[in-house]
Amino acid sequence: MATTKWAIDPTHSEIGFKVKHMMFTNVSGKFDSYEGNIETQNDDFTDAVFSFSADINSIDTRNADRDTHLKSGDFFDAENHPKLSFTSKSFTKINDNNFELTGDLNIRGVSKEVKLPVEFSGLMTDPWGNTKVGLNIEGKINRKDWGLNWNSALETGGVLVGEEIKLIIDLQFVKQ
User: Fold this and answer.
1) Number of structural domains the chain divides into
2) Which residue range is the domain that position 80 belongs to?
3) E strands, the chain, where?
4) Is the pTM above the cut of 0.70?
């Protein structure tokens, strides 16, 4: 069976995240520059192999000072680790539209296995004849697992930045 290659469509995708700020509100961010590919042998994607990377310098939280701090050695250390990456190990079908994506997430030179729930939106042909697939990923990771440890204690108790990062990833891939 022939391998089908799929490339991420950056104009219809978003790599986002949320983290608690001062323990009671969320700050949202995203990466503006990234690339991703999928290779499959069949249209149900049960054998899909994913690869993804994002440019740390493209982080955008709508606050230039915060973005600069996130790129620094306190967090992502973009100077020494300019990209984060993900390589899949498995894509397991749970039921008709739900999968579990397992793979290695590499941030700041540290690689850890993660398992993320994926909603498979199916295949569709756009008005220009391109075959596309939609995937929605929402999961959680602990930033400290990758050495993103910086924080500041609050006078009222608690900390400035939460440890849990909520991933909100909407992806559209185009068949090559």
Assistant:
1) 1
2) 4-175
3) 4-8, 14-21, 25-31, 34-40, 49-55, 59-60, 83-95, 98-107, 110-125, 131-142, 161-175
4) yes
